[in-house]
Specification:
Length: 404
């Protein structure tokens, strides 16, 4: 049995007494149908309403297109009985968000179409944002300037606070006589939504979703992002409360950054560019200093290693990283005529360099894990990484003894 949809007559109805007509289990979930409903079932790209039937939470609302029955999926159907009256309460915040967003999408699409001959070719509505895939009829690109103009024009329609009217048409033929932006191919009982005076609307589009009674209630329309998508421009849009929430969030983030850089929000980009340039200078300087340090340490090694008489020459480096030591050892490979351990104190990592016999990688493999170390490498160069300094020292001690 087709369910009477109270939201079509009064989109602001938040509560109503409904009579339970049917209860069923469907795909493992319990569903309840009533004679009437205040809940919009998912459709036309708009997510479904949520709320409560009596004390029980509704988790989904879907329409059976063949019968016109609206099924409310509930957390627990054990308390329901056919013929029973239940008091339904709508999650109004969620619904009003959807109304603002859906209507915002109509207004923006209408402006793009009228100003630039740009069509809405695909639409998706998430919990608090929408995406619209736009393309110009003549194939020309959509510029940032066009987006700015359409966004402003859309907000001007919001500020004009014009009526939003839904008119019903029995057939697609009748609906087509209206100045609809998108072609209506088939169907019956078609609802057409007009933004403004239906004889000269800002937008006119067939839609089954829920919309506020006036454009002013949309509050705000924001285009947040525009990116290429399959030859079209995919725009991320917010309207109403979600648009305000996004704007507040961005404003707070921008203010915090401006405070950090001691500048105005309007000069943040320049300040950030200057900061990047400064960071580049620091990075370059650091790299030069690291090279100079590595060169100096390499010279010291060249001098110290040949004179060393023990089985393993250990050199400790408080500042150099394991990567820097490894790179230095690789460049100076020829000087390791006897085994050496280059220990990066800050990385707790031993870089082991040998002439090939004994094999450095094999030594790490055989002894590092005894002290919780890990790593590996080639015959001439390997590294062993530890979590404790003491373990790294014990490892080097063990290698020294092994090589004696
Ligand atoms: Zn709509």
């Amino acid at each position: 049995m087709a369910t009477e949809r109270l939201y079509q007559k009064d989109v602001y109805l938040r509560e109503a007494d409904l009579t339970v007509c049917a209860i069923r289990e469907y795909k493992g979930k319990m569903q309840v149908a009533c004679d009437r409903t205040i809940f919009f079932p998912e459709g036309g790209g708009q997510p479904c309403d949520l709320g409560c039937l009596g004390e029980v939470k509704i988790t989904d609302v879907k329409e059976d297109k063949e019968t016109g029955t609206v099924w409310h999926t509930v957390e627990d159907a054990s308390g329901f009985a056919e013929g029973q009256t239940v008091h339904a309460v709508l999650d109004w915040t969620r619904r009003f968000d959807h109304m603002q967003m859906h209507c915002g999408e109509h207004i923006l699409s209408g402006r793009f179409f009228e100003l630039f001959g740009v069509e809405n070719r695909g639409f998706h509505m998430g919990e608090d944002y929408m995406t619209i895939d736009m393309a110009a009829i003549d194939g020309s690109p959509i510029t940032d300037e066009m987006i700015d103009k359409a966004e402003l024009a859309a907000n001007e329609v919001v500020w004009a606070n014009v009526p939003v009217t839904t008119l019903w048409f029995d057939t697609a033929e009748e609906a087509k006589s209206q100045p609809v932006r998108k072609e209506i191919k088939f169907g019956e009982d078609i609802s057409v939504v007009f933004i403004g005076d239906p004889s000269a609307p800002y937008d006119c589009c067939a839609c089954c979703g829920t919309h506020p009674a006036t454009s002013g209630q949309v509050g705000l329309i924001s285009v947040l992002k525009a990116e290429n998508y399959k030859g079209m421009t995919r725009m991320t849009i917010k309207a109403g409360r979600p648009a305000l929430a996004e704007s507040v969030l961005r404003s707070k983030i921008a203010s915090q950054l401006a405070q950090k850089y001691s500048c105005e929000v309007s000069t943040l980009i320049e300040r950030e560019a200057a900061n990047d340039a400064k960071n580049d200078d620091v990075r370059r300087e650091l790299s030069e200093l690291k090279s100079a340090l590595a060169k100096a340490e390499e010279e010291k090694l060249k001098e110290a290693l040949p004179a060393f008489e023990g089985s393993l020459a250990v050199f400790r480096y408080p500042l150099m990283s394991a990567d820097d030591l490894q790179s230095m050892a690789r460049k100076a490979e020829a000087i390791f005529t006897k085994p050496a351990a280059l220990y990066s104190e800050k990385d707790k990592t031993v870089v082991l360099a040998t002439p090939g016999t004994p094999a450095a990688g094999q030594l790490v493999k055989d002894y590092a894990n005894m002290y919780g170390g890990k790593g590996g490498g080639s015959k001439t160069l390997a590294r062993a990484i530890f979590t404790k300094k003491a373990d790294a020292e014990l490892f080097m001690d063990l290698i020294e003894k092994h090589l004696r």
